[in-house]
Amino acid sequence: MVSAMTDDVYRYNEERWEALVAADALFTRPMLDLDEEKARAYLGLARLGLPDDLAGRKVLCLAGGGGQQSAAFALLGADVTVFDISAGQLERDRSAAEHYGVGVRTVQGDMRDLSALYDSSFDLVWHPYSLTFVPDSRVVFREVAKVVEKGGHYHLMCANPFFSGLTHSSWNGEGYTLRQPYTDEAATSYPDQEWVYDRTSDGRSIREPREYRQTLSRIVNGLTGEGFLLTHLSEVHSDRPGLEPGSWEHFMSVAPPWLEFVWQYRPGVLGTA
């Protein structure tokens, strides 16, 4: 099953992710050594304040192909659907499901158009890093609101808006210099980090990610406007002492690059539709 949206943003992201699959990049490698305990620890549901009894619950892994989250949720008894732009990523979800003897539903498409899922209602939408791959996050939030159950949860991990586009290579000897404007839909691109690849893969021929800045106000107001209430927020950072300035981990200790949200869909509570 494939959704209908095929604009330039779709084509760029699809081509890039198919190339990442071919290069066996980190985010395309299925997790094949899980058991229930490891799956529960990997997802960290208790830390996020989410129910960890998943038996029979409908879970959508949104833009989350690759055989990682889907396998973990399926091992915990969830009814799993994976929606992703990359056919190669979805194939890895199916391979992981076969490896564990579980079932997953796979749908190819763009997260800005979830019409292929309008016949479903999910208890949990699990959305790993991908929001910045589209210009307007609000389009995605409107679609999520159409497929999540009332009282259900939306887990979102995304770029920290204040540091989007900044990396450890911006070290100037004293700190990390912000140069890009803090404005919605400002386009940015930068090389993949070294840890995305290993000795068996080569990312030099793969185009850099094309990302679009989403301000914190757009993210928060966009989600509250759709009827979501914030229940959890954490910053993904490093707190190890003695890190080398200019290294990725030191950068993470100064400028947390990612945020992790949990939202509950409660339309009408704040006067929203």
Give the topology, please.
Elements: H1 8-22, H2 36-43, E1 58-62, H3 69-75, E2 79-84, H4 87-100, E3 104-108, E4 122-127, H5 137-147, E5 148-159, E6 187-189, E7 210-212, H6 216-225, E8 228-236, H7 248-254, E9 258-265
Parallel strand pairs: 1-2, 1-4, 2-3, 4-5
Antiparallel strand pairs: 5-9, 6-7, 8-9
Helix pairs in contact: 2-3, 3-4, 5-6
InterPro entries: Methyltransf_11, SAM-dependent_MTases_sf
Pfam family, one: Methyltransf_11
Keywords: Methyltransferase, Transferase
Question: Which stretches of 5+ consecutive residues score pLDDT under 50?
Answer: none
Structural class: alpha/beta
Shape: globular
Q: Give the fraction of residues assigned to helices.
A: 25-40%
Keywords: Methyltransferase, Transferase
Domain Methyltransferase type: 60-154
Pfam family, one: Methyltransf_11
Protein name: Methyltransferase domain-containing protein
Report on the structure:
Helix content is 26%, strand content 21%. The chain has helices at residues 8-22, 36-43, 69-75, 87-100, 137-147, 216-225, 248-254; strands at 58-62, 79-84, 104-108, 122-127, 148-159, 187-189, 210-212, 228-236, 258-265. The chain has one domain: Rossmann fold. The chain has a 7-stranded mixed sheet, sandwiched between helices. With 273 residues, the protein is of the alpha/beta class. The chain is built from 7 helices and 9 strands; from the N terminus they run ααβαβαββαβββαβαβ. The two termini are 30 Å apart.
